[in-house]
Each structure stands twice: as structure tokens, then as C-alpha cells.
UniProtKB/TrEMBL annotation:
Name of the protein this chain belongs to: Sugar phosphate isomerase/epimerase
Family annotation (Gene3D superfamilies): Divalent-metal-dependent TIM barrel enzymes (3.20.20.150)
Pfam families per record: AP_endonuc_2
Protein source organism: Paenibacillus xerothermodurans
Nucleus in keyword set: no
Domain (Xylose isomerase-like TIM barrel) ranges: 19-262
Listed GO MF terms: isomerase activity
PANTHER family per the UniProt record, alphabetical: HYDROXYPYRUVATE ISOMERASE (PTHR12110), INOSOSE DEHYDRATASE (PTHR12110:SF41)
Keywords attached to this entry: Isomerase
Length: 272
């Protein structure tokens, strides 16, 4: 089992801390999703002028960069898409430097747009970004998220796009929590495209507590984590198990110093 975490979960850690804690806690890699307040990390010295120092420090710690998680959305106006293409190229350049295979993208919110029209837009933009990915020898991952959480919707996009440079990122939380989609269904429909996974746990809040759900440390909620792991294991999944602890967006949840090592301990026990 290969473990990683997104830096969304440690928004106040500097690079030295990120690397040191990853090694200390027993992670195998780091998924960069923002750094010290800047979400587009390619704009920062650590990933531009000083990038070779960053690469060396991560390598010396015995770690790898498992993915660059971008803010790119496939459902976008053409001017927005043009900017996203530039952003994708920047991340593709980083992938080449770090030896990283994946760039995560979102489908995006479609609002009042007809689903068929939104799908046409997303497929076209996915194809264009896939062409850029092909130029750089990387893959883009569309996440089961926002208005593209349903496994059948994601499969439809990937089939229509028909690009070998495109695959799926299974956020193992959102389909189950927001749609009631059973893990076995997700895998049956989308398994051929799943190359990367995000992990988190939550429980349903009572109506008197505001409803919705609350993120919590792994194993303290009701996401069927054991079932999901066994499903992946039995189908020979070989990708990363990446903690997406959304501390950046939910500052009230546990600090990374608690949540991160807990994740490692919990996930390692699943293997036994």
C-alpha cells in the first residue's frame, strides 16, 4: 500500500515541515494542492527558480510527488479554458521535472446548463488537455467531484473523450456520501479508468446539528473504508491511497499533526 497526502491538509506547513512530517509519519509521497496560501504553486520560487532544490530535498527524504492537484475545471468558458490550458502546461512542466505521472482536474459546476451541452464542453476540453498531456508524457485525472461525482457520468465523459492520457481519480468519499453510490457500483462502472484515489471519512450530522455531514479522522465515521480497500485490493489496484484532509477549507477539523499519522496507522491496519 502506497500512502500519500495532499497539502490541502497542512496549509500552514512550510516545505521543510511537509517533507519532514511525511517521512516521520510513514508516507511514501506528497500530492501538492497549494502551498502556504498559494494554490497555483508553479508561481512560487520553490517550484520555479528554486525547483531543483525542492526536487533534491524530496528525493533525499525517500519520497515522491504523487500528483499535482490543480484548480483546473473542464466546464469553463473558452477564455477561462485558455487560461486553464496555460495552467495545465505549467503543471505538466513540473511533472517532467519531478517525475510525476498525474495532474488532477475538476469537472466543475455546471449550474443551469443542460447536462448534454455541459458534457460536450467537458469532453472537448478534456480532449484538448489530453493532447497537452500527451506532449509531456503525463496523464490528467478527472475527479469524482462536484457535478461529475456520479460514476456513470464520469465514465461517459472518458469514453467520449477516448484519450489514453485521461483517467479517473476516485474520491472514495463523495460518491458514497453525496449520492449514496455504493463502492461496488463505482468500481464496476469506472474501475477500468481508476488510477488514483482520495480518502477521507465523515458521519451524517443530525438535523438539529445542522444536517449534512462532518469530516472526522479515519474510522470514526461511516464511510465503508474497509469495503473500499478490499474492493481495490481484490481488483489489483496499484495506485496511491491519498489522504485528502480538507483543513484548508474546514479549519475546524483536526490538526494535521493528529490526522496525518492517524491516517497512516489506520490504513496500514487495513492491510493486515
Amino acid at each position: 500500500m502506497k500512502l500519500s497526502f495532499t497539502t490541502l491538509g497542512c496549509p500552514e506547513w512550510d516545505l521543510e515541515t511537509i517533507i519532514a512530517r511525511a517521512k516521520e509519519y510513514g508516507f511514501d509521497g506528497i500530492d501538492f494542492r497549494g502551498y502556504l496560501g498559494q494554490m497555483n504553486i508553479y508561481k512560487l520560487p520553490q517550484f520555479s527558480t528554486d525547483v531543483h532544490s525542492t526536487i533534491q530535498r524530496i528525493k533525499e527524504a525517500g519520497l515522491e510527488v504523487t500528483c499535482f492537484s490543480s484548480s483546473i475545471k473542464l466546464f469553463a468558458t473558452e477564455p477561462e479554458h485558455a487560461k486553464f490550458v496555460d495552467e495545465f502546461r505549467a503543471y505538466a512542466g513540473l511533472c517532467k521535472l519531478f517525475g510525476t505521472r498525474y495532474i488532477r482536474v475538476f469537472g466543475g459546476k455546471i449550474g443551469d446548463t443542460d447536462r448534454a451541452e455541459a458534457t460536450r464542453i467537458v469532453v472537448r476540453h478534456l480532449q484538448e488537455l489530453s493532447d497537452v498531456a500527451g506532449e509531456h508524457g503525463v496523464k490528467l485525472l478527472i475527479e469524482t467531484h462536484d457535478d461529475w461525482t456520479d460514476c456513470r457520468v464520469v465514465r461517459d465523459v472518458l469514453e467520449r473523450a477516448n484519450r489514453r492520457e485521461a483517467a479517473a481519480l476516485w474520491d472514495t468519499h463523495h460518491p458514497y456520501r453525496t449520492l449514496g453510490e455504493q463502492p461496488a457500483t463505482t468500481w464496476e462502472v469506472l474501475g477500468d479508468w481508476i488510477e488514483y484515489t482520495h480518502w477521507k471519512d465523515s458521519f451524517t450530522r443530525k438535523p438539529e446539528d445542522g444536517g449534512g455531514f462532518q469530516y472526522c479522522p479515519m474510522g470514526q465515521g461511516d464511510i465503508p473504508l474497509q469495503q473500499i480497500y478490499e474492493l481495490l485490493r481484490d481488483n489489483n489496484y496499484s495506485g496511491f491511497f491519498t489522504l485528502e484532509w480538507e483543513k484548508k477549507w474546514h479549519p475546524e477539523i483536526e490538526e494535521p499533526e493528529l490526522a496525518f499519522p492517524h491516517f497512516v496507522r489506520y490504513m496500514r491496519k487495513l492491510v493486515v
